[in-house]
Automatic annotation (TrEMBL):
Cofactor(s), by name: Zn(2+); Mn(2+); Fe(2+)
Protein name as catalogued: Fur family transcriptional regulator
Family recorded in the similarity comment: Belongs to the Fur family.
Annotated binding of Zn(2+), by residue: 77, 80, 117, 120
Length: 129
């Protein structure tokens, strides 16, 4: 693996749910000559090799994380943009119903649910009081 590709992989590991721009910023801390097209090409290759996985956590660029981590659902807070990883078991009943009623087999590794995290819910509740 080339040094630039290794830096991209390390940035994905360090940043967890990171966009290509975030990854570029992290890589440039070590190698200032790397450009965004290199990051995109490297992410595509790393995904083909099964080393990274992406998810769409809202509008804009996908986010990337290491593929060897357990599969999980992304819970995305619309207020603070924090991402919480929830075990797939929390959606087992939901996915079973989709399979049963529609014959639909879900790909949960690209699944995101949007809402409000506990901290932001508490802040919103206290602001309404």
């Amino acid at each position: 693996m080339t040094p630039q590709r290794q830096l991209v992989l390390e940035a994905v590991d360090t940043l967890e749910h990171a966009t290509p721009d975030d990854i570029l910023g992290e890589v440039r801390r070590t190698a200032s000559g790397v450009n965004i097209s290199t990051v995109y090409r490297t992410l595509e290759l790393l995904e083909e090799l099964g080393l990274v996985s992406h998810a769409h956590l809202g509008h804009g660029a996908p986010t990337y994380h290491l593929a060897d981590r357990h599969h999980h659902i992304h819970l995305v807070c619309r207020d603070c943009t924090n991402v919480i990883e929830a075990d797939l078991s929390v959606a087992a009943e939901f996915t079973a119903k989709l399979r049963e009623q529609f014959g639909f087999d879900t790909d949960m590794k690209h699944f995101a649910i949007f809402g409000r995290c506990e901290d932001c819910s508490l802040k919103a509740s206290s602001a309404e009081s």
